[in-house]
């Protein structure tokens, strides 16, 4: 299938989904006030903003806080336009309505090149995809999209609420609205009259302001400032409630065991000994659901009692399709897929075959990346209560829409009988885009006579039953012409497609087995001016449950591409920074970011004996990040990263403090993977069990990190993930300078 | 029946001798500020103070805590913990926050015995894991708290 054909067929699919659209009432994402439940003295002014009796604002929050700062950044958008101090806003979980769906995350799935976004095809594809996404209204936190998605609508919500409050004051004072201004939660008239938002809310609620204009950039007082995160006080005194901290009257605790072989089944259970143990209540079989392996849960009065008893249950597991699965032959199979299959072409320009035929010199390199686990600090968990009235779920989830659907499916009730409470997430990183544990908790709660059950996994269950970052292999080839110019770049990669597999698990109604851009992103999205390019990806199905891992395709593909660009520079005898810059003539934003990182790192200046620098540049999630890593080898020859200088252009920097935090976090996350990350599979079972055999970077190994934000007036783009992809190639490129050895496989082991 | 001194209160709890302190705190006493991360003392999310020393409560039998003073993140903060909490906010340390109770208790234990820690002390003694990568801010916040406490004393 050619790319154009694919895009047109995607449009056709989208069009099919839009049939009947005209029958739906026209919907604005601003939403109506009656969407929001109003408690005592609260008045909703639209679908996003309520004014409290004290004049503060309560903001509908459809996104999950998993560390990325979204519970601070999104209220900033509203508070700015509302002219209300951030401290006088608070959030409430948004109800289920299509206005809260994440449109930006779905539009971002379209496989466009970031520098080739002009044109009718791109525009119409994005338009129709946005329309469909609006209708679907999927509430999801992922793809580094929250601020980008909220940017227009949440500022508009604040501005609209403000306009209604001003109109109410003007009406009350019988003055023209344009003579009124707002300041720190009050409407102020030039004549000296003042009223607090709380006093005006009732009158404002009946007013629908006409056209509302957003503030000019120069008038911002909050956006662009490093406002302290609102969630931190509760995170330093132990009062923050993560999913695993939910406590309910009469609550029971459940521990689980799943078939150690991924995708295997459950045969006979011998639970007598376990049931005889103190404070153990029951054992519930868990069918495979939402991608999980089959297993069982033990219910007890505490999780420890449940977990201890789970170890005493004798389960007979039955072999499934993965009984013979081993990650080593997987790598060989991926390699032969690259050699023998043409794959789906995500990108081409010029005539790459001709470029190679005419080449004076060719380079070829094979790269590979292993399976990886998410290993969020909060183990997977969910709390559920099933009664005759319906299902209530408390979950640390990135996907309320799918979580609710999974609970309803499991319990056999309509979705409107499910109440979902989204807690704080103790890390998400893509793992909590899944609904496996939600189905399990609801299943167990169907057997506890109305008592709520908190089901939590041990670290070992979490590590061995993840949805792993897929293993990937790529062959990269460069054609150099007689003048020493990079004239052609040909890339073919192979690995499992992520989005379709995820879709099958969480949203079976809409499984489009279309080419998956996440498998190719980072390889077809290069900013470099190379006249002839071709990039294709062979989508495989290895059987390992695979999912979205922070940075998704970029997390390994950027390692392949940015290492190979270094190889080309080296083959041409060019400095890797200067060489990249020379290819960025048509990509000024990329060039500026690269330059900023290199200059702040002191590129070219001498380093301490035994240290070397490496550089990498990656555009992802609409943002551009460059990193320079300073690396040495320790006394047993292992890489040690001393300092990382990071530059980012993420459009308008809504909260620079959070952006810097996310770059630091992304770099540490990426370094854990680059230096240690590896999941091995033998006979269908994951070998790594806990942190000692799946190490994370510790404080002692954390480099000094310095982040520079390149100013921009573009709309904001992602920050949660873009810090991850550049660090592996930056370190690998430094290791090449140090040792002369080109490491083409992750993790980086010399 | 086990008698424990937790956050300066004497609490009686019906727990088996081998039940880890973590689960007594979380599931029997409802003190969920102390977190479960790994169950094998590898990550430190469950760190509490025992007579001022940091202890990983997921592998520490509750019965062994009898007669000792246990302090969790929920305890009324003394000047050291208060200084750490202030520094944690000033440096904007937490991201997801899940590991931070344990991180704070480990830092608390560190400052109890090293009131003027060097960066090397911190690197050696702060072995808690954080998946969000807050480490450099943890280091800065400990130094900030130590300075604040020195200033108090001066």
Q: Give the largest interface pair and sizes.
A: A-B, 63 and 57 residues
CATH-scheme architecture of the largest domain in chain A = 2-Layer Sandwich
Discrete helix count of chain B? 5
Order of strands across the widest beta sheet of chain B? Answer: 2-1-5-3-4
The neighbouring-strand order within the major sheet of chain A is: 10-11-8-18-15-16-17
**What separation lies between the terminal Cα atoms of chain A?**
40 Å
Quick check: average pLDDT of chain B?
97
Structural class of chain A: alpha+beta
Portion of residues within helices of chain A? 25-40%
The CATH architecture term of the largest domain in chain B is Orthogonal Bundle
Task: Please report which band the strand proportion of chain B falls in: under 5%, 5-15%, 15-25%, 25-35%, 35-45% or over 45%.
Answer: 5-15%
Distance between the termini of chain B: 46 Å
Order of helix and strand elements from N to C terminus of chain B: EEHEEEHHHH
The helix tally of chain A amounts to 21
Output the CATH class name of the largest domain in chain B. Mainly Alpha
CATH topology of the largest domain in chain B: DNA polymerase, domain 1
Task: Give the structure's gist in a few sentences.
By secondary structure, chain A is α+β, with helices and mostly antiparallel strands.
How would you characterize the overall build of this protein?
The complex is a heterodimer of chains A (750) and B (154). By secondary structure, chain A is α+β, with helices and mostly antiparallel strands. Chain A folds into three domains: 31-102 and 137-236, Aldehyde Oxidoreductase, domain 4 (2-Layer Sandwich), CATH 3.30.365; 243-321 and 380-456, Aldehyde Oxidoreductase, domain 4; 327-372 and 468-739, Aldehyde oxidase/xanthine dehydrogenase, molybdopterin binding domain (Aldehyde Oxidoreductase, domain 4, 2-Layer Sandwich), CATH 3.30.365.10. Helix content of chain A is 32%, strand content 22%. Mean pLDDT of chain A is 94; it is low at 1-27. Chain B folds into two domains: 2-71, Ubiquitin-like (UB roll) (Roll), CATH 3.10.20; 79-153, DNA polymerase, domain 1, CATH 1.10.150. In chain B, 39% of the residues lie in helices and 14% in strands. Chain B contains five helices and five strands. Chain B has helices spanning 21-28, 79-90, 100-113, 119-125, 135-153, and strands at residues 2-6, 9-13, 47-50, 53-56, 69-71. In chain B, strands 2-1-5-3-4 form a five-stranded mixed beta sheet, with helices on both faces. The chains are: A alpha+beta (750), B alpha+beta (154).
